[in-house]
Amino acid sequence: xxxxxxxxxxxxxxxxxxxxxxxxxxxxxxxxxxxxxxxxxxxxxxxxxxxxxxxxxxxxxxxxxxxxxx
Length: 70
Fold this sequence. Notes:
Blueprint: H1 2-19, E1 29-32, E2 36-41, E3 44-49, E4 56-61, E5 64-69
Antiparallel strand pairs: 1-2, 2-3, 4-5
């Protein structure tokens, strides 16, 4: 009787593990840093630099209006 119960428990445990499928992880993690941002996923990682804030102003040079951006 004891061996029969052990065999039934083993078959149930095996059957339970076979009903669940292993799926691929599709998670993507992104983070924003001070100087750059980056994302990492299952196919690799990418790092992107933040654009520099550009300050533009209009000045007159020799009678011509010119836009200067710094």
